[in-house]
Prior knowledge:
The strands form two sheets. The chain has a six-stranded parallel β-sheet. α1 (15-25) crosses α2 and α6 runs parallel beside α7. The chain has 269 residues and is of the alpha/beta class. It is built from ten helices and eleven strands. It has two domains: 6-112, CATH 3.30.1330.30; 125-267, Alpha/beta knot, CATH 3.40.1280.10.
Amino acid sequence: MASNPTEFITSDKNSTVKLVKALLTQTRQRKKHGQTVLEGVHLLDAALRSNCQLEASSFNQVLIAKSAMNHIEAQHILQRLPTHVPILVLADALYQSIRSLGTGIDIMATIDIPTNILPVIHSDCLILNDVQDSGNVGTLLRTAAAVGIPDVLCTTATAQAWSPKTLRAGMGAQFGLHIYENLNIEEVLDKVKVPLLATSSHTDTLIYEHNLRGPVAWIMGHEGQGVADDLMQCATPIALPQPNGQESLNVAIAGSLCMYETLRQRHYN
């Protein structure tokens, strides 16, 4: 830590403090600056352990409350930072005025949002078609990472995969995935070369009866409107049984069930 440039800040007029506050709360500012905020030791630890998405140059600065400087977990984070990353030590009241988490170890960092160019996909992938709730997106990313699906494709109206809320919901799963955002449906259909599958209540093909042993692309749609017609017309509809007759499952639950049934058929039959 000693070799990192360090500055103590007490004013909310500081330009970096104002930027971080905007990045925490505004989608527009994250898009404008191409940056987001990792808040809390868990996300910072996940980022520092990542060898998939983040490079050392992705880190812009770390902000830490003065009272957290001697916390053992915070020290462990600071000692692993690349030496070029500035450490901004904020007065406790100032840090608390910008944080979005509750009480805990007051440390956060800004990073450049990873950007990827969509390649041709010949392996398993997850397609998020305008899934709008950050919690749902984060849960789906976390499940994809858990079962070993490497690529996630997000159409234009999907919640930001790298927003602070989605990062928290995903518990840092983003760092183990290749995520492609702001795609239109034509790009998805052009690049994905494996069978498309989408859950539907208008089919008799149960997921447990469908062969999932080869590469597939699971499509999860908008919470209210479902999968877009253009995608659905190219997909095989798959039913999740609901013997008690509920109207539908939450999209994150449905997607997790689909991904885990894929895993079960391949490894746990």
